[in-house]
């Protein structure tokens, strides 16, 4: 039974040593692996708590339903 857990124990020791000897690289790898996991898990959690995305911001100004009047004054001739 101990032989089955030996690879995990050695991996834990290796990661612990790397965290002490080169913490910048170790934590960069940790944060880099958390990102894709969050992409898959956060949206369902947000939907579960009732999050709804906001309405889209209008990209055009609505024109009134009337004929346009010509501009008077301040015109260059």
UniProtKB/TrEMBL annotation:
The chain crosses the membrane at residues 24-42. This is NADH-ubiquinone oxidoreductase 9.5 kDa subunit. InterPro entries: Nuo9.5. It comes from the Eukaryota. It comes from Macrolepiota fuliginosa MF-IS2. CDD domains: NI9M. Keywords: Membrane, Transmembrane, Transmembrane helix. The keyword Membrane applies.
């Amino acid at each position: 039974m101990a032989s089955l857990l030996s690879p995990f124990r050695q991996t834990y020791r290796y990661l612990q040593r790397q965290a002490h000897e080169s913490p910048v690289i170790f934590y960069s790898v940790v944060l880099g692996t958390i990102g894709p996991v969050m992409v898959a898990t956060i949206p369902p959690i947000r939907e579960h708590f009732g999050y709804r995305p906001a309405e889209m911001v209008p990209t055009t100004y609505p024109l009134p339903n009337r004929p346009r009047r010509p501009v008077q004054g301040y015109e260059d001739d």
